[in-house]
Amino acid sequence: MTRTIALVAVLAATLASAPVVAPHYFYLDPARLDLSVLLPPPPDAASAAERSDEEQVAAEVAQRTPAQLFEAEEASKRSVFFFAASIGPRFTAAQLPITARLFLHVRSDVGNLINAAKVYWDRPRPSGAQKRRGSYPSGHAAFAASTAILLSQLVPEKRDQIFSQARTFAENRILLGLHYPSDVASGWTAGTLAAYVMMNDRAFERDFAAAKAELQRANL
Predict the structure, then answer these.
(1) Burial status of residue 57 (CB atoms within 10 A of its CB: 0-12, 13-18, 19 or more)
(2) Cβ-Cβ contacts under 8 Å for 17 (sequence gap 6 or more)
(3) Residues 6 or more apart whose Cβ sits within 8 Å of residue 27
(4) Chain-centre distance for alpha carbon 216
(5) How many domains, the chain?
(6) Is 138 inside any structural domain?
(7) Fewest CB within 10 A of the end CB: N or C in the chain?
(8) Domain membership of residue 137 as a residue range
């Protein structure tokens, strides 16, 4: 028993002294995009805004059908190729590896940015949500906004369809009972800000141009 306690103590000390590795960003400089400054804080507990958030989630969950729940759960993966429904069946990672890599980098950058904001605000999830990691802002909404903005510039003729899909993708987080409306709204704002900053990055401009050329060659 004494030996076990000693091993646990050594492990705890090792973990405590391990260096914290900063997340890697491809196109974003997090110092230029501090969401703790740019986003409003989530509603205060017991405020009218908080009660409204709770009531809207409860209403969505109560009114959803099994089919709606299944569809929302199935369509919750954060991948640019979710938008094949808008662009066409040939819009796949196998057909478009350069585009796939670009949007993997975008998703990673936006995810890192949102994770930092979640830690900062540490808002609890709606009642009943199995997920426990910070609710504010919504990472799925940020993904939807940033991806829709960038993808619609690559395939401008599909812009309306892309944004329609993105809005549904983001709002499904409320229907699933995983996020409050204010989480989704601020997530969308965060994704918009992230897309704007990325569009002014040289590495992004290079990779975006390569993806655009690839899509033009594919003639989707």
Answers:
(1) buried
(2) none
(3) 105, 106, 109, 197, 198, 201, 203, 204, 207
(4) 27
(5) 1
(6) yes
(7) N
(8) 24-218
- 1 in any annotated domain: no
Query: Would residue 18 count as lying in a domain?
Result: no
CATH code: domain of residue 163: 1.20.144.10
For residue 100, give both structure tokens: 């796939």
3-class secondary-structure state, position 115: helix
Contacts of 88 (CB under 8 A, 6+ apart): 220
pTM of the model: 0.88
Q: What is the pLDDT along the chain (220 residues), one digit of tens a residue?
A: 444 444 344 444 444 455 667 899 999 999 999 999 999 999 998 899 999 999 999 999 999 999 999 999 998 899 999 999 999 999 999 999 999 999 999 999 999 999 999 999 999 999 888 777 899 999 999 999 999 999 999 999 999 999 999 999 999 999 999 999 999 999 999 999 999 999 999 999 999 999 999 999 998 7
Tokens of 220: 């989707």
Spatial separation of the C-alpha atoms in residues 56 and 63, rounded to whole Å: 11
CA-to-CA distance for 109 and 195, rounded, in angstroms? 10
Structural domain contains residue 192: yes
Please report, as a single letter, which amino acid is at residue 93. Answer: A
